[in-house]
Write a structure and sequence with these properties.
Layout lengths: L1 E8 L8 E3 L1 E5 L2 E2 L5 E4 L18 E5 L2 E6 L2 E6 L6 E6 L2 E7 L1 H11 L4 E4 L6 E2 L10 E2 L7 E5 H10 L13 E4 L11 E4 L2 E10 L16 H7 L3 E2 L2 E12 L3 E3 L3 E4 L1
Parallel strand pairs: 14-15
Antiparallel strand pairs: 1-2, 1-15, 1-21, 3-4, 3-20, 5-11, 6-7, 7-8, 9-10, 10-11, 12-13, 14-19, 16-17, 16-21, 17-19, 18-19
């Protein structure tokens, strides 16, 4: 038996996540997840891979949107914005987005380098990689697919091999579940949470971000090295499963039963 143990959203790509007790599943993932993204002056996305300090931005949901804390600085963004659409670049994709000028000014000021904040409106349709998911499945600003799922038992097994245990936040999942054997999510195909139907489409290849402490931004290469000793496939290091949404629209909650095929 599997049950949801944690839910997370990351409203701004590569910044701190928010732990939730419930979240609505939409076509492009959990509501508000990765609908915002920081870009450089060339409208190319930036992440913790190059800017580990992004881990230090902590977010919380408020009535009007999201509050952002960075050291002694504070800022707020709304749930969404209207305005003139432009195009931004994320990996090999180019998609429509709207710049939030106030946010661009604030992030540039606190970080000390040009940093523009963009929002993905509802009419921006970034498709997932059709090599793994045929059809009209869409994505937010997440790397490749709308949702990432990981088992708590998988993390527990990794931590048994680590000198110092790490938290699941290193892997930036949306859904964490209890139950089953370590890495049983590798065998998930179609799974459901109440009437919400989801599908695992491929394992998630991990990068150096899992070595960044999400509280201090300190870097430690041990997590990637240890994971590489027993979770390598086709020269890639795997943890968690990428998920697409088959049937959306419902709230899912911590404690909900997850039924896997």
């Amino acid at each position: 038996m599997y049950r949801i143990s944690q839910l997370f959203i990351y409203p701004i790509k590569s910044l701190g996540g928010i732990s939730l007790q419930e979240s609505r599943v939409e076509a492009r993932g959990l509501a508000y997840d990765r609908r915002w993204m920081l870009c450089d002056e060339n409208k190319q996305f930036i992440t913790q891979r190059e800017h580990k300090e992004l881990a230090l931005f902590k977010l919380q949901q408020i009535d009007s949107g999201f509050g952002i804390n960075y050291k002694s600085e504070r800022f707020q963004i709304p749930f969404g914005v209207n305005g003139t659409s432009t195009q931004v670049k994320i990996w090999d994709d180019v998609c429509d987005a709207i710049e939030f000028l106030e946010g661009s000014i604030w992030f540039t000021s606190v970080l000390g380098y040009t940093c523009k904040l963009y929002y993905m409106p509802n009419d921006s349709k970034r498709k997932v990689d059709e090599k793994f998911a045929k059809g009209k499945h869409i994505n937010s600003f997440s790397d490749a697919f709308p949702i990432l799922i990981a088992g708590q038992q998988s993390l527990n097994q990794l931590n048994l091999k680590m000198k110092q245990a790490i938290d699941i936040n290193r892997f930036r999942p949306n859904i964490v579940f209890d139950g089953g054997e370590p890495f049983c999510e590798d065998n998930f195909r179609i799974f459901s949470i109440h009437k919400t139907i989801l599908q695992c489409v491929k394992p998630c290849a991990r990068c150096q971000v899992i070595g960044i402490n999400q509280t201090s931004s300190e870097i430690n290469t041990e997590p990637l090295k240890v994971l590489a000793t027993f979770r390598t496939q086709e020269n890639k290091i795997m943890f968690g499963q990428n998920v697409i949404v088959i049937q959306a629209g419902e709230l899912i909650k911590v404690g909900d039963l997850l039924i896997a095929d």
